[in-house]
Amino acid sequence: MPHLLHVFSNFVPTGTELRTVELIGAFGRGFRHSIVSMDGRTSAADRLSPNTDVRLLPEPPKAGSLATARRLRKLIGKEKPDLVLTYGWGAFDTVLAARSLGFRRVIHHEEGFNEDESEQFKSRRIWARRLVLPGAAAVVVPSERLQAVALNLWRLRPDLVRLIPNGIRLDGFKPADGNPGLRAQLGIPAGALVVGTAGSLRPVKNHARLLEAAAKVPEIHLLLVGDGEERPALERRAAAPDLAGRVCFAGYQESPAAFYQAMDVFALSSDSEQMPLALLEAMASSLPAVSTDVGDVRAMLPPEQAPFLGADLAGPLAELARSPGLRRQLGVLNRKRAEERYSFEALCAAYRGLYESVL
Predict the structure, then answer these.
(1) DSSP letter, residue 133
(2) Helix, strand, or coil here: 286?
(3) 237 and 183, same structural domain?
(4) Do 268 and 327 belong together in one domain?
(5) Residue 111: per-residue pLDDT
(6) Of 14, 109, 130, 187, which residue is most buried, by most CB within 10 angstroms?
(7) Are residues 46 and 19 in the same domain?
(8) How many domains are contained in the chain?
(9) CA–CA gap between residue 119 and residue 173 (Å, rounded)
(10) Are the CB atoms for 317 and 267 separated by under 8 Å?
């Protein structure tokens, strides 16, 4: 049975980690897995199926990049994996370690950029990727925008870069119907026009932009699903007179499907994205979307959604607030798009094929 060594900067329940959990479950006993979290956080492991062969390995001691790479080199030598899977810049030292051993069965995943690279790429990281990634077997990206970065900025060979769009289990999401029971629990009026979003409350997600837009459209209520460092500041803004009583903080939700059902419109206010999983989940829930024009958002959505993309969220939100027929029309189109392009089955087949080709 092939042994796959996964290395993450952290293994917490967010997009990349949850996708990996789903893939491990789908592959069943076809592979055995070892997981390293570079910062020691492993809460996503709680989601792993008991029917899988998975071990959590201790994180390497914190050190400089070269010292960490040496320790990871020893780990690879000890574990003798058939395939090494690395995720993001936080796991890049593992790519260095594998290359120093002449080990080429490495698949590196690039998922996007955090606050430190949301506006400008760091030159040291550009050169590191140019020099090191050509020694990997493949570099996986989820979006066309990131594929262009890999080809044009990092100067990777086209045959090295694999575009695998995100996918979700569509049957887990039902069309939004207002979910009056959940609205009652959250204290949201049954007849309110609810604009919702889902994701960690981090600066790069710029939920403050969404709050400012909502302040200009007094007929809407906001539902924020997620938690994070920005929550105290957002709660202070939500308490101001122009928003008071119109913003609900639902916190982190392990299973957010019911919360999408309680929404009338989905909104994404991020400064940087690649292929946001929350948008796919909203599309699967037959919700219309308003979003900043970031990453692959425009390509993910049907062309009818184009007028609702841009830095100004207030105008599109106001238009959808007064157009229930348009909301229904866009929701149907978004669900159809998700069914045609973004199923979990297609995602799983693409990853299985890649793993088997490298092995």
Answers:
(1) G
(2) coil
(3) yes
(4) yes
(5) 85
(6) 109
(7) yes
(8) 2
(9) 34
(10) yes
pLDDT tens digits, one per residue of 203-257? 999 999 999 999 999 999 999 999 999 999 999 999 999 999 999 999 999 889 9
Cross-strand partners of 222: 195, 247
- Looking at this protein, which amino acid is placed at residue 46? D
DSSP 226: B
pLDDT, tens only, 280-309:
999 999 999 999 999 899 999 999 999 999
For residue 70, report the phi and psi dihedrals to the nearest 5 degrees. Answer: -65, -40
Query: Does an H or E element contain 184, and which?
Result: helix 180-186
**DSSP 8-state secondary structure symbol assigned to residue 303:** G
CATH of the domain at 160: 3.40.50.2000
Structural domain including 144 reads: 3-167+344-358
Say which residue the tokens 């080990």 belong to. 103
**Whether 222 and 281 share a structural domain:** yes
| pLDDT tens-digit profile, the chain (359 residues) | 999 999 999 999 888 999 999 999 999 988 999 999 999 999 999 999 888 999 999 988 877 677 888 899 999 999 999 999 999 999 999 999 999 999 999 999 998 776 666 556 789 999 999 999 999 999 999 989 899 999 999 999 999 999 999 999 999 999 999 999 999 999 999 889 999 999 999 999 999 999 999 999 999 999 999 999 999 999 999 999 999 999 999 999 988 999 999 999 999 999 988 889 999 999 999 999 999 999 899 999 999 999 999 999 999 999 999 999 999 999 999 999 999 999 999 999 999 999 999 99
- Do 68 and 163 have their domain in common? yes
d(CA 348, CA 339): 15
Confirm if 313 and 288 have CB atoms less than 8 A apart: no
How far is C-alpha 238 from the chain's CA centre?
26
Answer yes or no: are the C-beta atoms of 289 and 317 closer than 8 Å: no
* Co-location of 200 and 212 in the same domain: yes
In which residue are the tokens 């207002």 written? Answer: 178
Q: Assess contact for 295 and 204: CB atoms under 8 A.
A: no
Token output for 71? 């320790």
Contact residues for 327 (Cβ-Cβ < 8 A; gap 6+) = 264, 265, 288, 320
- Token look-up 């996708």 returns 19
